[in-house]
Structures are given as structure tokens and as C-alpha cells.
Amino acid sequence: MIGISWGGFNGLQTAARQAPALKAVITLCATVDRYSDDMHYMGGSLLTDDMDWGGSFYSVAGLPLDPAMVGAGWKEQWLSRLDVLEPFPAKWLQHQRRDDFWEHGSVCEVYSKLNCPILAVSGWADGYTGVVFRLVEALNRPDVKGIVGPWGHLYPHRGVPGPAIGFLQECVRWWDRWLKNKQNKVEDEPALRLWLQEYAPPKGHYDMRPGRWIALDGWPTNKTDRTLWRLNSVGLTRSADAETVIAIKSPQTTGLAQGEWTAYALCKVAPELPLDQRRDDAGSLTFDTPVFEEPATLIGSPLLELDLSVDQPFALVSVRLSDVAPDGAVRRVTYGLLNLTHRESHSSPAKLEPGRRYEVKLRLNEAAHVFGPGHKVRVSISTVSFPMTWPSPKEATLSVYTGKSTIELPFAMDRSFSEAAPFEVAEYARPRPVTVIRPEADTIEILPGFAGGSKGRASSAP
């Protein structure tokens, strides 16, 4: 089985049922946890993709059946479907905790049943990237491999941002080995092949991302050292300063530069990627490392531990880790979200006691990024991440206690990562000739009076 997105879900779910005829799977942009890996609840926070994609899905589900496919009874079947069709977001909103509804179909509940070969693929601009790492780590077998490129929610042979790869050739090699028993040694290849991204000035779309392919023998990798940095009043330092309290109540427009949860439409040049984070940093607490004198390679998922309090029973925290360039531009590298009522459990959330201090952990998404000489790492903390995430019921003030709050940054111990063998050139069926009447272009505009009085255009088509 092979499929992307929902098709990728299906391959894993069928593998978990151990269908005798299923000999191998290629899954792209998929999920192992329908609650937290999908577009519904990231860190227990409601993603607006839940309603965005769910509304589109609802409209598709209401379309009539094709008489050529189902015959003369198409209309009766269609009307029967409409009788029971309900808006999907309404259903999902009835399950805001991780309950049996989400456990059903979440293969992380039954990893031991995934006993057929699996090739997992995603991109850094996709919302499902972490699933590749979770499958490789949980299954830890020679017949389970992962590839993460620079792309969005796309097949890699049409991958944008590029470079695209010869993915169809990779598929043939995978099927040859596991369906035809050809001894082509795919099981001897690296457990993970990752596109190690280099800095690029922040903008809403790239045709190409600079970087290189690296190979890892497993996950988590033993090639990194998880260095501990402390959030202090002067920034990120290796040693703790005296405890201070820094408070933030982010404007409700914080997050306008965040980018989309997953980039679906990059193939038509849509500005869905993160913009310069200085706009959102203005409504956030920011902590910077000193400037790096040598390149620093971050590979893995940073872990933030916050000592905090809030003034509301409901609140969320959004954390962005960014690359600050010498010219001041801020490129988002990775991020994480946490509904603070889910600080201990997604299945049994608990209200916050205003004013009480809590110690919470927030793991950011995986990343592979090189911070160049003259650059520095920035950690940005806000109480809002809109429009990616639905806001809290009331505006909350978050107080962070510095000195004790920390972040683990998985930096490479050296720059000796193995170069991955190059992929073949991308091949695909060429589309038929078209006449372009008007070039495609999408724009994003932030209007005066909406974003706290900001003037002018925040971003435009690339």
C-alpha cells in the first residue's frame, strides 16, 4: 500500500490489522496518533485546520455519486448519505480530550502489530513531519526507514520547496525488495535520510531550500549532545542567574507571521511558510543565545521546561525556536504548542489555579538546521498563536520564572554527519501542454485596524 495524507493513514492502519496480503507499506505525510499528530489538537490546543480542512471535507462528502461507478441507484444512495451527514468539525469538537474516539485508528496504540516493512516520508514544511521519527524510533528495525525532505504536503518527486527527488525510483526499489525479494540491500541503508537545512531569509514561499542530505543510523541519534540552556533575564545562557519574573499577555494577533500548520498548496506558489518572526516577537517574551562564532547544527526536538504561573484557569503557551540572522531577520526553525490545562495529560486535563506556580514540559517539533557564524538561537514565548491555533477563552497573562526555566537544544557534537547517497533525478508523468492566461499568485495582507493598527502589507506573493 502507498498513499499520502489520508492514504498514508490507511496504509498504517491496515498494517496494524496485520492483513495477510499486505507485504509492505510506503506512507507519506501520515499520522500515528490521530489526536496529537493530526490537524486537530496540537499539544491539546485546537488547531484552526480542524475547521478549515473539516469544512472542505464536509463539502466533498456531500457530493453526488457518479452513476458510471455505482449505477442507476446513485441518487437514492446520495440522498441516504445526506440524511446522515454531519459537519465533521462538530464531531471532532465533541472530543477535545484524547479519548477512545482518537485512540481508534491511532497505530501508536499497537506499534507491536506493525510487522511489515514501512517506508515513512514527509517534509519539513508539512504538519506530519514528526511521524517519520516516531515510527523509526518505535519500530527500530532494518525494514523500517524514514525520509524527511524540505517539502510541504506533497509527493517528493513533485516536492516544493525543492530539491525534489527521484521518489518513484525509491518506490520501485522498496517494492522490488519486499514484494519480489530482490536483494537490492535497501534494508542496509540508513534508518533516516534528512535534508539538513541551512539558513534562508524568511519569506512565505521558496522554490528551493539550501541544504544537504545527511544519513542517520537510528533515532534518537547519538550524534548530538542535548545541551541545557537557561532562560535568564539577559537571554539564553548556560548558567543560571538570579530568579526573576517576566510576564507577557500577547496581543490576539500574535501568530500572523507563524505560517500554516501544514503547507498544502506550495505547488502553486502559495505563501504558506513562516514570515519574519519579528512581527510576532513583538508580542512575545524572547531569549537569545550569544552569537555563534562557528556553525552550530541542531538535529532533534528541543525540550522546554517552564516554571510559570498564569492569571486564568485556561491558557495556552506557544513557543517558537528561530534563527536570528546578523541583519536582524528572524527565521522560524521549529515550534511547539501546549494547552496548559493539558500539562499532565491529554485524556484528563485540569484547570489552572490562577497565581499558582507550575513546572511544565513542552517538546518542540523535530528540526534539522544549521545556525551559521554570526547567527544566534532565539526562543520566543507567547500566549497566543492565531490564526494557527484557536485562542483561549479569555486573554491570559503568563509569568515565567527565569533562572529555573530551561531548554535542551540537541546540537551536533561535530560536523561529521554522514552524507546520504544522492537520490536519483525526479521523474513523473509530464502534464499535457497548457496555455497560461494569468500567472498564479496568492497574497496575504494584514489590513490597518486589524493587526493592532499595523499599516501596509505584511507579506505578498514571492
Structural description of this entry:
This protein is an alpha+beta fold. It contains nine helices and 22 strands. It has helices at 6-16, 49-61, 67-70, 74-84, 88-93, 100-103, 130-139, 167-179, 278-281; strands at 2-4, 25-28, 41-42, 45-46, 118-123, 144-149, 192-198, 211-216, 224-232, 235-237, 245-248, 285-288, 296-300, 303-310, 316-324, 330-339, 358-363, 367-371, 376-382, 398-401, 406-412, 418-419. The strands form four sheets. Strands 1, 2, 5, 6, 7, 8, 13, 18 and 22 form a nine-stranded mixed β-sheet that branches. The longest helix has 13 residues, at 49-61. The model is unreliable at 450-462 (pLDDT under 50).
What is the typical, i.e. mean, pLDDT? 92
DSSP strand content: 25-35%
Question: Which consecutive residue ranges, at least 5 long each, have pLDDT under 50?
Answer: 450-462
The coarse silhouette is globular
Radius of gyration: 23 Å
